[in-house]
Amino acid sequence: MSSPIRPSKGDCEIYQDYLSRKKEVERVLILGSTPEVRDLAAKLPKAKIYVADFSHQMLSGMVKFIRHADPTKEIWIKDDWLSLFLSERSFDVIIGDLVLQQIPPENEKVFLKKVNSLLKKDGIFISRFHFISERFQSKTIEEIVKKVEVKKRSYNEKVTLIRLWVWERFSDPESRKMDRCLAAREYTEFIKRTKMSDEAIKKVEKTLIAWENAPYTWSPPTEKQLVDGLSDYFTIVDRKVATDHEDAIYYPIFNLSPKIK
């Protein structure tokens, strides 16, 4: 999958930078099965690695994309992140990629409080997050597609960006809702109206239809909503964005330390 769905090389370099600042890492909790994150954690000497995912299928299915991590040395936990049965203040590092995308808005505070509680007092929480802006709110699908076509792109990059930008167009950050059904319907009308022949543009229609009834009906937060939410439970130690993929500015990677109350 193309960035920003998966971490780019530049994203991984930021993750690595944050990890290298933390000395004597004994216990690491990885949220999700992202291969790039598992590979980075595997390079930490003597660290005990826990990998928590909602799906055992994801834990095992992503193994084929791993380059450095040894699955036999990982401790797999199939569980909801909100109810992980792990000791409080026991992890030096908790790390994941786009973790809030898995959490409904009404559960974000519960999730962040849970992560805070699992970190040692000097622990760190590292993750890439996604926020949206108003850049597409008044745009037509034609305008969104044209924006993607301005630059020469690979098939996968084109499919990924159009899909994500169309979803953003049909997201309401105020209510934190995303209308996937309307996005699919409007895009189908666009294809019929314009008779587009480009294979990548046509592929987006199939993808949007396949996802229109997905249980993920929430919109990503705005930048302010994201920063305010994180700041309730963490001190922002650092925030960086990669420079090697299109929308990196909207996918910042945070290095966070827990606020102990």
Give a quick rundown of the structure.
This protein is an alpha/beta fold. 38% of the residues lie in helices and 19% in strands.
Indicate the overall shape: globular
> What's the tally of helices?
9
Number of domains: 2
- Fraction of residues in helix: 25-40%
Structural class: alpha/beta
Radius of gyration: 19 Å
Question: Which blocks of ≥5 consecutive residues have pLDDT under 50?
Answer: none
* Main beta-sheet annotation: 7 strands, mixed
Q: Judging by the overall fold, what is the CATH architecture of the largest domain? A: 3-Layer(aba) Sandwich
Strand content: 15-25%
CATH superfamily of the largest domain: Vaccinia Virus protein VP39
How do the strands of the widest beta sheet line up side by side? 3-2-1-4-5-9-8
CATH topology of the largest domain: Rossmann fold
H/E element sequence: HEHEHEEHEHHEEHHHEE
Mean pLDDT: 95
Q: How many angstroms does the end-to-end distance come to?
A: 40 Å
Domain Methyltransferase: 37-123
InterPro entries: Methyltransf_25 (IPR041698), SAM-dependent_MTases_sf (IPR029063)
Organism: Candidatus Sungbacteria bacterium GWC2_49_10
Protein name: Methyltransferase domain-containing protein
Notable traits:
about 260 residues, alpha/beta, Rossmann fold, 2 domains, seven-stranded mixed β-sheet, two-stranded antiparallel ribbon, about 40% helix, globular
